[in-house]
Amino acid sequence: MIIDVTGLKKRFKQQEVLKNITFKIEEPKIVALVGPNGSGKTTMMNCLMNLLPFQEGHIKILGKDHKDPSIFYEVSYLQDNRVLYGDLTGEDHLKFICHAQKLPIKKAKEVAEYIGMDSYAKKRVRSYSLGMKQHLLLAVAVLNNPKLILLDEPINGLDPTSSIQMRNILMDLHAKGTTVIISSHNLEEIDKMTNTIYFMKDGKILEESLEDFNVPHYTVTVSEPEKANAVFTAACLHVEQSGNRLIFSENKIPLQRAIDALNQNEIEILHIENKKIGAERRYMELFESELSS
Questions:
Q1: Considering the chain, what percentage of its residues have pLDDT values greater than 90?
Q2: Could you give the 3-state DSSP secondary structure of residue 264?
Q3: How far is Cα 242 from Cα 228, in angstroms, rounded to an integer?
Q4: Whole-prediction pTM value?
């Protein structure tokens, strides 16, 4: 068991920020935390890492109580770059972590090369761009080859090149067996990394997976949409109609069956599009009230 959270509740004075959060992660995967600002994402991460006390609930990390300091030899938490020291070099930071984690100093150079920051590792952090600082934070986080890594907005504000580099590194870490929990507002990047998403709203987890969204979704543009809709309704097949487009998923209506039904009723098919419905579409459904306010 990588993470086991049961009945987690957190209040700040009279405001309940986390409301009975319960979830498990049993095998290595990339999990995204998605939700509006103030939904509890950072608070939950801080509770998981024992940086914040909470009123109720239990948290186990890698089979141990989350307060057990030994877990941090196998767990890393990447916070924002305010934890960096501008007068130190990137190499200074890495060597310090090597000392704290009882790792050989040569590990600092190896990780700097792996992250792609070896060309500026000896420069003072105050001269770093945002992308360079994020890469240093990630280098610090992966020094101990963690089984679990938590990242709070690691791609926020990055340029496209840095975002791609960050994504590739996280996916490589996962391929090597690391569980990654990433909080992000960048839904396009999330879709490229994972379909396991914990949507958070008002301190609760609303959705835990987009596996159903991996099923192909089709948009079929037809010449007679009303007639086509009537054909599917008569056959007890549900489609979503938008103008002259019919929208449905493969697990509800196989594409070939839809094509056959349209051809048999002499309804001309103008265009077929296969489109993945990902995090942004689901976010719009779950947070419709926030978007319309």
A1: 60
A2: helix
A3: 12
A4: 0.77
